[in-house]
Amino acid sequence: MKAAVIVFPGSNCDRDVSVALEHATGHKPAMVWHRDSDLPQVDLIVVPGGFSYGDYLRSGAMAAQSPVMREVVARAKSGTRVLGICNGFQILTEAKLLPGALMRNAGLKFLCRTVDLRVENADSAFTAGYAKDQLIRLPVAHHDGNYFADADTLARIEDNGMVAFRYVTPDGAIDASGNPNGSANAVAGLFNEGRTVLGLMPHPERAAEPLHGNTDGKPLLDGLVEALS
Amino acid sequence: MKANVHVTLKRGVLDPQGKAIGHALQSLGFDGVDDVRQGKFIELELAETDQDAARAAVEAMCQKLLANTVIEDYRIDFVG
Amino acid sequence: MKANVHVTLKRGVLDPQGKAIGHALQSLGFDGVDDVRQGKFIELELAETDQDAARAAVEAMCQKLLANTVIEDYRIDFVG
Amino acid sequence: MTTTHQSKEPAVTPELAAEYGLSLEEYQRMLDITQRTPSFTELGIFSVMWSEHCSYKSSRVWLKKLPTKAPHVICGPGENAGVIDIGDGQAAIFKMESHNHPSFIEPYQGAATGVGGILRDVFTMGARPIANMNALRFGSPDHPKTRHLISGVVAGIGGYGNCVGVPTVGGETNFHPSYNGNILVNAMTVGLADTDKIFYSAAAGVGNPVVYVGSKTGRDGIHGATMASTEFTEDSEEKRPTVQVGDPFTEKLLIEACLELMATDAIVAIQDMGAAGLTSSSVEMADKGGLGIELDLDAVPQRETGMSPYEIMLSESQERMLIVLKPGREDLAKAIFDKWELDFAVIGRVTDTGRLVLKMHGETYCDLEVGPLVDRAPVYERPWEPTPPQADIPASEAPLPGPATEVLHRLIGGPDLASRRWIWEQYDSQVGADTVAASGGDAAVVRVHGTNKALAITTDCTPRYCFADPVRGGAQAVAEAWRNLTAVGATPLAITDNMNFGNPQKPRIMGQFAGCIQGMAEACTTLEFPVVSGNVSLYNETNGEGILPTPAIGGVGILPDASLAASVAFKAAGEAILLIGD
Lengths: 229, 80, 80, 582
Ligand SMILES: Nc1ncnc2c1ncn2[C@@H]1O[C@H](COP(=O)(O)OP(=O)(O)O)[C@@H](O)[C@H]1O
Prior knowledge:
The complex is a heterotetramer, with one copy of chain A, two copies of chain B and one copy of chain D.
Chain A: E1 3-7, H1 14-25, E2 30-33, E3 44-47, H2 61-64, H3 67-77, E4 81-85, H4 87-94, E5 101-103, E6 111-119, E7 135-142, E8 146-148, H5 151-159, E9 163-167, E10 187-191, E11 197-200, H6 218-228
Parallel strand pairs in A: 1-2, 1-3, 3-4, 4-11
Antiparallel strand pairs in A: 5-8, 6-7, 6-9, 9-10, 10-11
Helix pairs in contact in A: 1-6
Chain B: E1 2-9, H1 16-27, E2 33-46, H2 51-66, E3 72-79
Antiparallel strand pairs in B: 1-2, 1-3
Chain D: H1 14-19, H2 24-34, H3 40-49, H4 52-55, H5 60-63, E1 73-75, E2 82-85, E3 90-98, H6 100-105, H7 107-123, E4 128-138, H8 146-164, E5 168-175, E6 184-194, E7 209-214, H9 236-239, H10 248-262, E8 267-272, H11 277-289, E9 292-296, H12 309-314, E10 320-325, H13 330-339, E11 343-351, E12 355-360, E13 363-369, H14 370-375, H15 404-413, H16 421-424, E14 435-437, E15 444-447, E16 454-460, H17 463-468, H18 470-487, E17 491-500, H19 507-527, E18 531-537, E19 541-542, E20 545-546, E21 550-559
Parallel strand pairs in D: 4-5, 9-12, 17-18
Antiparallel strand pairs in D: 1-2, 2-3, 3-6, 4-6, 7-10, 7-11, 8-10, 9-11, 12-13, 14-15, 15-16, 16-21, 17-21, 19-20
Helix pairs in contact in D: 7-8, 7-10, 8-10, 10-13, 18-19
Bound molecules: adenosine-5'-diphosphate.
The site of adenosine-5'-diphosphate has 13 residues of chain D, from strand 4, strand 5 and helix 16.
Keywords (chains B, C): ATP-binding, Cytoplasm, Ligase, Nucleotide-binding, Purine biosynthesis
Subunit structure (chains B, C): Part of the FGAM synthase complex composed of 1 PurL, 1 PurQ and 2 PurS subunits.
Family (chains B, C): Belongs to the PurS family.
């Protein structure tokens, strides 16, 4: 599997995800600076976490307008897998590759902790490494992770199996206590209709090796390698 | 020429910041605040002197960047 | 009664958000934007019907919570 | 040589100098150096260079008593940060710094810019910052200001640190009424560099370009004394010193751009613009190199119009650096800063005159010999009195104030032991994906990227001990840092410190300072745990009441194998619990 990681001014999980991808694939992904419009031919494009453009105005808004994102959108339309993590998820919604928007956390505070998630749909290259309904734990660290979409959009998302991960309590229940940021329908990760694009707020690359104290993010990367090689 | 842009959340979109301000005002003892909404106020200093041209430009800026039309509305006013 | 509050950074105070928006507009090809400042726009729905009383209350809310008067100015308008 | 501008600036008199913080003796000393009445800009430069903050005039004689050497120390106090060897050609670079006063005035921005400042001290030396820590003291939890202050400070630390992508991995938080009017916000950054790629601040190479990079200069945080000057009030709204606002996005770009430039061979010397901005950075670079600097202030990127030389030199706008480049490397450097969309301007040259010369609009506003500005800065041996010893109270004479479980509940629920989770959850402690242990343990553990090694980091101080017995309290703070590092399995290597005290002109306060230094020195010597950097914050007083003496210690240690880091959690039922020590 060949992968590329897009780097914006203010991205700061670009190195972390590239290390995790290197561990998973055995080779370094291409790092693509936001002003480059020639993106190499790859199987997976990753839009990493961080604070692109400081998250000023709205998280992800300025990055979504970057020249490289036009190319990412075009590739996504032709089926290349695109993974957006945290700020990357925000950028993908701003770029309209995914429906809805990520708003300020309901508690208004930045929140860094490990959360419980349920894998809602294992039928994608991104989630093939998990079983449906599997409970996993991943770290989150964000200020704007409160997923919003209008009622029609939410219905469409649910009808099409577009929810990849949901925030749950440790025993798998969906309720306010398991929802760290107020997301509608407890959405933590979302596919596009074709399940070729995934955006998620949790950071799989921070739970990818024993030293992280948690390896629940590794199946996501390994599953991608398996599916896209 | 100066353009003032107000970016506000669409009706029906939950406003966590507005809600929190409402709560905070209440706990500070300000009663009778029924609803609070928080938006953005962006002031643009433009070289353009023709108002129509300026409006078209600012309209495009709002569509492309300043507002996320999935959740936000915007209003453009010119001053001076 | 509805009060609109504009909270803006004082003159001379660095506005990192405005600066970044200005840069972004430029790289999107919008020339002729000389300066951008970003502030907040807060809409309050008040039970109070007397404008003087409402103004006094909103003034107090600004001082206590809505504005950070060390670096921000505010303006209160009433509508409707 | 004289300056040529006088008509436009206020005339300097002993009274004006007093408003700018220079005592009559200091004024005389200044005249001895200049041999003429200095210009207003020159007065500004003397006043900040000779301020407590820049000159360490009350503390310098005492700081000399701290042990600063060990075989693994590459660079001790005196540079932007301390540097220690961690093997394999790598170095850890770290320092702690206070932003107490600004955080009391504007907690969010004060704390945020404190983090920004300490990050710059570390990456100036060539290090990529890998961890932030913070040591915080607030007043009584029920004091009306405390909630507002702590929530602002915590949000500001997170707001800045999270955005720049440096994990905040730990800290400490205490409450005591003595901090009601004087909170302490001490921030520490640890960075990583190769030992053959460490950058220093001494200017060299006559004729070399002096380059300004980063954000533009505004009227932020100009010497508070300006307000007192009648000459400036007619236009007060325009010229009032404003609170510094941090721009972490620009800082992130500045880190990346500086590290990219440092990977080339273009840099001769580099220095961040911290307190007293362009003044202290240019004076220190010239002084350390034994050379002069001539600056053309018209070339300084400015955010506001009509700024005077005084304002440009004293501005504390954030996210700026001063660099001396090798000749001919301007284009290479400019291309890097252009890529990162940062300001870049050649603003002057290194000279062989040993003088600081400042020109603007074709006139000379400053022409001072650099050496004496630094060497002849006042040094005070302030009178001090030892803290009277307190009687030891035998444990048997301090009965339990209630049933043991109830007392335990009270202790755990009290502000000093209650969980700090709500604080550290606002900090991204994982970015970098090298965090092995963050808040919640004895010391944080962060892997050295790309290796199996890890650094352990802790901040410690128990101010009430220092108040009761400064010598033992100072020693205890160092020993606690040492213990916290060893508790996670690390070998302690060195410390940085942040000496927070009251008014040094009071012999009682000076006695606390002297005592803490003595205790720290003894502990550092015994434990072979040298001090490699630090910061002093004095005059932490409100209405004549000083804070508890608070020498915050930041300790760094090394683990050869990150996977062997120990943590506090019990691992399994049925395992033995051992108590060691006495
Ligand atoms: N301001 C802070 N930032 C990050 N972590 C903090 C902060 N204050 C406290 N902590 C963390 O909370 C835990 C307990 O703090 P504290 O009670 O002050 O420390 P100690 O264990 O030294 O008594 C430690 O792990 C510390 O790292």
